[in-house]
Amino acid sequence: TDKRYKKIIINKKLKNIYQGDRCFILGNGPSLKKEQLSLLHNSKVFTVNQIARNSQFEKLDPIAHFWVDDNFFKIDPQKEEDLELLKTMKAVPTQKENTLCFYPLKQEEFVKNNRLDNKNVRYLLPELRISNSYNFKPDLTKYIPNFGTVVQHAIYVAIYMGFKEIYLLGCDSTGIMSTLNYYVIVIIA
Length: 189
Known about the structure:
Blueprint lengths: L1 H8 L12 E5 L17 E5 L15 E3 L13 H16 L4 E5 L3 H6 L7 E8 L14 E3 L4 H11 L4 E5 L6 H13 L1
Parallel strand pairs: 1-2, 1-7, 2-3, 3-4, 4-5, 5-6
């Protein structure tokens, strides 16, 4: 546990670093195909999952990228699609050297074994269950809720970083809005 704590205490440096700013969190929904993501070039942007496959990804300069879904960490070297996924995972820190890449701490071995670790790797401890009694303020140096979507994790981190305005783009087809209403009320209220 002491070793685990050292891996997440570094997140303390992120507390309120963007106090009062605005950010954009990009999902991977089909609506992104209609957007000119280059317009976000000078904005604070969070990206998730396989957005690196989007042809417009190179025009972005995200401050953070998230890989949280357990399915991404089950790579079968015999499957071409799994190797393609791993290539996509490696593309984010390679193309975007200043982007913080967030992973669940339980995937630390996977990150190291697949050479995804660099100076910008950050870990989260998404192991708590959300309930009506959950009323902790976001804290990335402790256990955090294990949300149902990667976008919810990005929102949680954005709140911790102090962003006042958080805009979601490409978050269609995820059912996120119905669950967000519940979580935002529980966390912020």
